[in-house]
Each structure stands twice: as C-alpha cells, then as structure tokens.
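Table S2 (continued). Query chain:
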Amino acid sequence: MAPALFIGLMSGTSLDGVDGVMTQIDPSGRLQVTHHAFVPFEAPFRTELLQLNQSGPDELHRSALAGNAIARHYAQVVQNLLHAAGMKPEEVMAIGAHGQTVRHRPLEFDGDAARHQAAVGYTLQLINPALLAELTGIDVVADFRSRDLAAGGQGAPLVPAFHQGVFGQSAACVAVLNMGGISNLSVLHADGQVQGWDCGPGNALMDFWCARHTGQAFDRAGAWAAQGLVNQALLQQLMTEEFLQRLPPKSTGRDLFNPAWLEQHMGALSASHEWAPQDVQATLTEFTALTCAADVKRHAADATSLVVCGGGALNDHLMARLAHHVPGLAVVSSADRGLPPLQVEAAAFAWLAFKNLHRETASLQSVTGARGARVLGAIYPR
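Corresponding output:
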C-alpha cells in the first residue's frame, strides 16, 4: 500500500506560533516529512495565551475565543502546506492537532481517599477542532492527552513512542531531548524499552527574561546569555525546586515554571538585590542545561548520543553548556538524524493521528504511569 498523507500541527509552550508538517506515513508507521510551514502568533494573542496560563477574569469566555483563534491559526498553516505540496484537502487522511496547552495539572485535586478514588486532575489544550475541520475540509484528531489521564497517567510527554520510531537504534541507547518551553527527555534503550518525562524548564524562563529586558522574543543563538556570568547563588537557589528531585513519571508546565516562580526564587536571596540582566539570562541558560544534563546522567548513563530537538537546539550557547555537562556524550541536533528540530513535535502529532485512525495505542505505561497503553485522541470529521 502507498503511504498516506497526514498533517501534524503543534503550538508549544514557547508560544511563538504554529509549526505544521505534511507527512507521508506508510502502513507500518514509518514517516517522512515532505513540507514544513510556520505561522507566528501576533504579540497581543501571545500575551493573551500567557495570561490564560493563570487564573483571571472571564476565563471561560476568553478561553473559548482563544480556542477559535488557535483553530484559525492552525487552518492557515494547513492552507500553506496544501499550497506548497500542491495537494487538495480530500487527499489528506487527517490532521493531528495538539492545541495550545494553558494548564497541566494531572493527578491533582479530585481524589477521594475514603472512597478509594484516585485523583485524575486535568490538562487543558485550547483549540476548537470542529472549527478546524470546518475550515480545512479535513478530518481532525485532537485531545490526545485526556485519555491517558483517565487511565491514571500524566498525559505527558506523548512523544517518546514517536522518538523511538524515528531515532531509536537496536545496537545502542539513545537519549532524545526536546527543548521547547518545557524540556522533556526520552531514553530509548537498545532492548526496545522506552522511558520519558519532563525534566523542567526549556526556553520558557529564558524567553520571559529576554523579552522583559531586551524586547526580543527570545535570545537568538544564546548570544545575550553568553555575555553574562552565571550567578552561582541564584543557580543553587533554582536547583532547590522539589520537582527536579522527583522520579519519573512526571510532567510539568508553565503552571510551575513561570515568572512568579522565578521572582520568588530571586526574592529568596535578596529582595533588594540588583541583578545584572545578562547575568540572570546566563544563569537561566545554565539552569536549563544543568537540569537536563542531570537527568541524562541519572537515567541514561549508557546512552551513546543525545539528540536535541525543539527551539533549544537552535540556541548555540545552550547547546554548548549542555555538551559541557555531559562530557563524552555526543550532543547532536535532530537535523543530523534526518528531522529538523522545529519539525519533530509537529511530525509526532501527524503520527499520533495515524495511530488513532488505525485504533492503535500510542501512549506508553513506562512513560506516563497510566494503567496501560491507550488509543489517544478524538476524531472530528470534516
């Protein structure tokens, strides 16, 4: 059978915009990206999404409208991909659409020990998938995380099984680090076993600090951080975060690693201290590199390579600091393994849509801690 066309769409915790890929997936699940497109978020919309990460006025109304806006951004990416590929909507089997995560609180709040009911918690990705199906004329698969939560899992990360198919090797252990707004690590063992979890912050704190002090959305290539000096007192204070010491399975998001968290830790050292902005940026970069490297050394000591994807792979200074903390381990961009860093997660959601349509499980009990593997996602027909 010939490969089928699937589109994958991803807007991550970096909140820069939507990455989309057109893919060909053969019946065995092998995937090839043929086209990539990106549509940025306008500054006011990005601000609105950041605000929706926290409690605020009229949240239900604002979240619903943001979901509609996300669908329209996604639809624009789909149109760009169809145009670039010279394809018609009816030639695409389905769109895998992640949506925009604004809250992630799995296994919290609603447990009842007296009734032996474990907490499920929630994870919230803003998108109107029905509107996306209407705008594109293509079946949409969305809501990938909630089925795993219902089975007692974290609902994240979802990409380790995909990483195994793309980057796994039968003769060696490979670690794959996705550095978006939050960092997550997949450990692909030579025997086929897969582990995966969120390490902590990726670009989220660095982007926030850079935008506040330079007006730029991110620190291009880490050039600004490279001008600063790491503040060891602040670094050690950040490293006291309890989440970093937890064992997998674990997942996190901007619910924890946000500006208020950073300001709390800076204030714990000295409320009146004047921080050199570039030194804080250097410290946040070191913090991200150090937390990721610590998890690699703790859980993937036998890995022969560390494959890095996500926006963090384009930060030269961050990549250098990461390599410094894992000496003897080859640190490479996912581009060197055939898939550019900004295409990996979008491709994963195309693959997840493929798995859904074939009624195949895509979650891993070893990653999320759920009671078993589940078919992920809900279908919204065109």
